[in-house]
Amino acid sequence: MHHFDVETLPAGRWRNGGGATREIVSWPVGAEEFQWRASVADIDRQGPFSAFPGVDRTFTLLSGDGVRLTAPGTFDRTARPEEPLAFSGDLELTAELRGGACRVLNIMTRRGRRAARVDRITGPAVLPSGHAAVFYVLRGHWRTGTGRRPLAEGQGVWWDEHDTTPDRAATPLSPGAVALWADIAPVT
């Protein structure tokens, strides 16, 4: 398992100036083309989103009032707090901010090679072996694995499908603890 704290990840500005991305992981690490990618994006202003042909995305609002994503005639959905929203990276989307800047967790998978499912969890969970995953704390404190230090808001862990960590349990350590768990499975 690889630990991360979003606030210590370097932020790269978008080419269009509308936000910044803090990459958690792009797998395989160092490869020219990712199989899957996890990042946290700060969206500062409304405008076009970059298309990612051949990629499926799941977008979860972490802070802010909402983001409406539209592609004329094909897609019109609003991302609401802590509700994963899946969509095709092929779409030429425009983002409309509801009430100002926001932050999102963005999970991207290469279509036909990996598939992601993002769930909001509030209780103990056992994370499957043979899958990659990203575990991100929204509120409270959590423990993942045996002997790991507790994770707080904005922190998490990720691993690839080859990780041999024997204990993949996630346990809330405080009342009202909430986390996001992105299960990233190979497509067979």
From TrEMBL:
It comes from the Bacteria. Transmembrane segments: none annotated. InterPro entries: RmlC-like_jellyroll, RmlC_Cupin_sf, Uncharacterised_HutD/Ves. CDD domains: cupin_HutD_N. PANTHER family: PROTEIN VES (PTHR37943). This is HutD family protein.
